Amino acid sequence: MKGNNSELLIYTFAFQAIVCFSIILDIAFVRQVLGFIFFVFIPGFLLLRVFRIERPHLTETVVLSVGLSLAFLMLIGFIMNTLGLLSILTTPLATVPILIIINVIVACLNLIIYFTNKDYAGLGLQNLGNFWRYLPILFLPILSIIGVLCVLYFQNNIVSIFVIILIAVVFVISSLRPKLSSYYPLIIISITLALLISPALMSNYVYGDDIQGEFNTFLSTKNTLFWNPQNYMSIQQSSDTSMLSITILPTILSNLLNIEPGWVFKIVFLVIFSLVPLGLYELYRRHWSERVAFISVIFFTANYVALTVLLTDVKQMIGEIFYVILFLELLIKDVDSYKSSWMILIFAIFGLVVSHYSQDFIFLIIIFSAWLGIKIFYRKIYSRINISIIAFASCLVFFWYAYLTPSDAGPFSKFIGSLKTTFGSFAGSFFQASSRGEDIQLALGITARPGILHSVGTILYDITILTIFIGFISLVIISRKDKSKREYTLITSTNIVLLLLTVVVPFFAGFLELGRLYQILLMFLSPLFVLGGDAIFKSLSRLRKQNKLNIRNDNAETSYSVVLTLIILLPFFFFQTGLVYEVTNDSFPSSFSLSYYKMQNSSLLIHESDVFSAQWLSKYGDITHMPTYADTIAQTHVLLSYSTINQGLIFLLSNSNESIRGDGVIPVVPSNLNNSYIYLSQFCVRNNMVWWYQRLGISFKLTELPILNNTGAFISRVYSNGASQVYFRTS
C-alpha cells in the first residue's frame, strides 16, 4: 500500500516541478495548459486524499477536486491579501508570493498523504490506455473552433451550422443507445464546450452587461495586485468588489498562467463552468437512470440562458460549481461518509458565499425550506440538511456581506432592498403585467414577438415549462412510494415555488433577472422535463392499450418515452441555439456565433474601434479633471471595461443640458467644468443616434444633443479611427 503513496508522491512532485519551471522560464503553452491543470485540480484532489474521501465515479472526483481547488485558491488569496492589509506584503497577489505559498501547501498535503493515508488505492494509471478510445468524442469542440475561424476569416457559418446539427445527432444516438452510457460524461463535456466556446471566441472583448462591471473590478484588483472590498462607486461595483470569484481568483489565475485578463473570463472560466453539467449528471443519476440523467443535462445545457446569458455573468458561472457540489454532498445517503465530507461542505459553502451573492440567498432558502419540510412531514428520514449547516452558511453570508462590505450598496443591503421592493409593492402592482418584467411578458404572450418563428419558439419554450410541471406531479406521486426521493422532492418543490413566484409576485424576477434565476432553478427542474415526457407517453399508451395497440415490453415502452421527449427537445434545441432563425434568414437573429455579421450593428457588441478610442482618451485625455459624455451603452460597456476613466466623471448624452447619471454611480464634481469630452462609439456614429434607455427604446439623434450643437461653445473632433470618435468641447 505504501507503494501507491510513493507513486502519488513522485508524480505530484514531478508535475509540480514541471509547472514551476514553466512559470519561471515562461514556457508558452506549457505554462498555460499544465499550469491550469495543476492549480485548478491538484490542490482539491490532494485535499480529498488527506481526508480519505473516495467517490465511486471518476467524474464526481474531478468535479469535487476542481471545486475544492477553486475555493482553496480564493482562500489562499484572501489570507495573503489580509497580510497586505496589515502592511506585511505590498503586493500580496503578485505571482511570486502566491506561487510560493501554493507550492508549500501542496507539498505539505502530499507529505501528509504519504505518511497517513496508507490504504490509498493508487492513481489507476494502468487504465490510461483505455482513455484513447474516448478521444474521438472530443472532436465537437475542435469543430466548433474551426467554425469560429471560418466565420471570422471567410464570413461563412456552414461549419458552425453543421456543428449544431452534429450535436443533435450525437445526442439522439447516445440517448437511444443505452450501451453508450459509459461515454456520457465525455459526451456532456464535449457538447457543453462546443456550444459555449463558439460565442466566446467570436470577439476579442467581453460581451454582455454585468460582465463589464465584473471585468472592471477584476482589472482594478489585477493592476494593484491588492483587493480592497471598500473601493466602490456604485451599487453594482460594491457588489462585484466583494466577490472573490471576480477579484482574487482571476487575478491569481491570470498571473500564474500568464493569460490576458479578457481570456481568463472568456476561456478559463468557461472551461471551469463546463464541469457544472458534469456535476449535475452525477447528481441526477443517483436518483434516476443514466439515460434520464443524460437527457436532463442536455436539456439544461440547451436552454438559451446557459448558451448565451450565463456567459455574461462570471460570478454565477463560478458560483454554480459550488452550488452543484453542495447538493452532491447534501443528498448523499451514506451515513458513514458524513464525517469525512464535512470538509467539502465547508469549502463549498465558503466558495459559494464569496462567488455569487444572489445564489447564496437562493441556496439558503432552498435548504431551510427542505429542512423545515423534513421536520414537518418526514421526521424519520435521515437527512444531511440540518440546522448546523444552515446556521454556518447563514453566519458566513451575514459576516461576508454585512460586515466585510458595511455599506448601503453592499449585497446584503441590496438583497433586503429587493425584498422591500418586491413585497412592498405587491398590492399595487399585482395586476400590472409590466411588473413581471419583459421576459415574463414574452413567455406569457403579453408582449408581441418580432415574428412568427419567434412566436413558435416561445410556444416551444412554454411547452417545456408545462412538461416540467407535469414531471413535478409525477415526482410527487413517485416520492409517496419511494422514501429515498422525498428529500429530493422537497428541494425540487422549493424550486417549483420559486419559479411560480416569478409569475405571481410583482418584481420578483428582478431579484436575479428571470433568465439567470431560471437557469439556477433548472438544476433541479431539468429531470422533471424528462419525467414529464415519460408521464405524457404513459398516459397516451394507456389509451392505445384500450384500443388493443399494446406495447410488448418495458424496454420498448422506455424507448418510446425517450423518443417522445426527443420530439419536444430537438426542435427546442434548434430554436434555443438560433439555428432556425439563421437557416430561415430571420430578421431578428438570436445567435451571436451563427449570425455574427448580421449582429454587427448590435449596440451591446464592443468593436475594436470602440476599444481603441476609449484607450486613446484614457491615455491622452485630461480625464481626471474634465467630464466625459457618452450614451448609456458606451458608459456601461466599453468605457467601463476598457478605459481608465473615473466612472463618476462620465455623464449621459441626452436632449438636455443637465449632467445626469442613470446607473447608480456616485457623480464626481469635475475640477474643470468648462471643458469636457464627448465619446461616440461606432454604433452611435454609424447610426447617427445615442441610446438613453435601450430597454424602453428611448434614443436621440446626434442633431438632438445640445452638447454637440451649441453655437456658443467650441467643439472639435480630436480623435477618429473611421468609426468611433472623440470630441473636445470648451465653453
Low-confidence stretches: 123-127, 546-554
**Molecular shape:** globular
Most strands sheet: 5 strands, mixed
Number of strands: 7
**Straight-line distance between termini:** 82 Å
Beta-strand share of residues: under 5%
Rg, nearest Å: 27 Å
Structure characteristics:
731 residues; mainly alpha; two-stranded antiparallel sheet
Structure description:
This protein is mainly α and 731 residues long. It has a domain at 608-730. The protein has 30 helices and 7 strands. The chain has helices at 2-24, 30-50, 58-85, 95-116, 139-154, 158-176, 184-201, 210-224, 235-241, 248-257, 261-273, 275-285, 290-302, 304-307, 314-330, 338-353, 357-377, 387-403, 411-424, 426-429, 438-443, 452-481, 486-504, 514-546, 554-576, 579-583, 608-620, 632-636, 638-641, 682-687; strands at 628-630, 650-652, 675-680, 689-693, 698-701, 714-720, 725-730. It has a 5-stranded mixed β-sheet with strand order 2-1-3-7-6. A hairpin with a 4-residue loop joins strand 6 (714-720) and strand 7 (725-730). Helix 6 (158-176) packs antiparallel against helix 7 (184-201). The longest helix has 33 residues, at 514-546. The radius of gyration is 27 Å and the shape is globular. The protein starts with a helix and ends with a strand.
